[in-house]
Structures are given as C-alpha cells and as structure tokens.
Amino acid sequence: MSADTKIAELLTELHLLIKQTQEERSRSEHNLLNIQKTHERMQTENKTSPYYRTKLRGLYTTAKADAEAECSILRHALDKIAEIKSLLEERRIAAKMAGVYSDSDPPRKTMRRGVLMTLLQQSAMTLPLWIGKPGESPPPLCGGTPASSDYVAKQGDKVAARVKAVDGDEQWILAEVVSYNHSTNKYEVDDIDEEGKERHTLSRRRIIPLPQWKANPETDPEALFSKDQLVLALYPQTTCFYRALIHTPPHRPQDDYSVLFEDTSYADGYSPPLNVAQRYVVACKENKKK
C-alpha cells in the first residue's frame, strides 16, 4: 500500500472518530444538564434528601463514564494524527534523500530565509502536547525531560548540534539527523539552514535531541525548565542555539518560555526577555559561564 493511500485511509478514520466525539459529547450534555437541574432543585428546597443523594450519585457515575468514553475516542484520534504525521515525515525524508543522492536530479534549491523561519514556527506550534493518564509521568523528551542515556535520534529528527564554524569557533546549530553509525557512535547531520548545505559527522556528546512533546504546565510543571535554569535556546529568527537563563516558564500549554540570552553588550550580561517555543529549548551541557 502506498503512503498516499494509507494517509487517505487514516484521514477517513480520523473523520469518523471526530464525528464519534461529537456524538458522545451530545449524549453527555443531556446528563450534565440533569446534574445542574438537580443541584438547582436542591438549592431551592434547601435540603439534601437521600433521594437526591442517590440520584446525583447515579448521574455523576454516568457523567464519569461518558467522559472516559470521550477521552478514549480522542486518544484514538490523536494516535491517528501521529500516524499521519509520521507517514508525511517518512515521505519528506525519502524525497530529500532522493534529491541529495541522485546524480540525475538537480541540486537542492536554497530555501528562502522567510520560508524557513515560517516552517520552524509551524514545527513549534504543531509539536504535540503530552496528555498522560492520571498518575502517568511525562516520558523522556517531553518538555525539558532529557532523553535516556542510550537514546539514538532517528533519521529526520531535529537536534541541536555542536559544530565548528568557518572562523574556527564552535556553535550549536539546528540540524536534521541523516544517519547514525552504531560502530563509530557518530551521527551524520545536515545544517537545517540550507544556505550552508553542510553535512557534519559528530559524536553523540555533540548532539542534543529536541523535545518530541510539549509539557503541559497545568498538569506536568516538573517537566519544564524552571526559572533561572541555564539552557540552550534557539535565538529568534536564526538557526543557532545560544546559552540563556529561563526568565519565565510557560504558564499555559500554548505559551512559550521567556528567556534571557547571554549578551555582553548589556550591562548585566543578558538580553531583555525574548520568547522561545518549548520545541527549541534544551538543557545546557556547559555549566560555567564563559
């Protein structure tokens, strides 16, 4: 089955799941209205009789079951979305590799700067929010939670990569994984900024995987970097990571971090607060300020 056919099937299944969610919600609204009316009658009569207690217990039990059923459908829908995104990513990587390695094809076109910045913003906005079950801890690569020690980034994954610049200085850039050699424990990565069209071979210690889920500050605040914590953050409108301090962590799932970049041109050594998405904030491997 081709990727296009599979994607079409998944989209059809997703559409059905969305309809099921709406139907489930419509059914549950009637029960929620009954709960509200029962509470209003109790307030009017100013008493809580055994009859009302029994009735409310049954209504709340039904409401809980309705919510769990809707939650199950929504999780199934999220799984379908993740599958679609995975297939689209596989197709993108295949097209890119064909363009890179085929002698008969023309070389890659340089992407306009504005287009690249827009794509990076879209990638940050569409990063899925981790929604765990009650009592479930956020997984590695959720928000500020680091990857496990034996984690190997997959082909196409975005990472922060420490490379040598033209002037000999080292810098952290946004890169895409091309491959990983298990014999040498080294990655091959491409600079995401196609203006450079550079490929680098780097050891694992020079690679930091980017988050794969956003952490929800309302349910999993421990998965976020805390105020004054030292991090590497992607400087706005660039493809380079720089050392920064967390000024304010996100308060809501859709919020960005507010960070203070190290900058010697300011009296206190830090820039004014700038917003950086969760997608582009990672732990800093260097603790001492240079």
From TrEMBL:
Q: What is its main location?
A: nucleus
| Listed name of the protein | SAGA-associated factor 29
Protein keywords? Coiled coil, Nucleus, Transcription, Transcription regulation
Domain SGF29 C-terminal positions: 149-290
Q: Which organism is it from?
A: Eleginops maclovinus
**Alphabetized CDD domains for the sequence:** Tudor_SGF29_rpt1, Tudor_SGF29_rpt2
Where does it live in the cell? Nucleus
The superkingdom listed in its UniProt entry is Eukaryota
Which Gene3D superfamilies does this UniProt record tie to the protein?
A: 2.30.30.140
In the UniProt record, does the keyword Nucleus occur? yes
Q: Name one Pfam family in it.
A: SGF29_Tudor
- GO terms classed as biological process: regulation of cell division
UniProt xrefs under InterPro entries: SGF29, SGF29_tudor-like_dom, Tudor_SGF29_rpt1, Tudor_SGF29_rpt2
Q: Which GO terms describe its cellular component?
A: ATAC complex; nucleus; SAGA complex
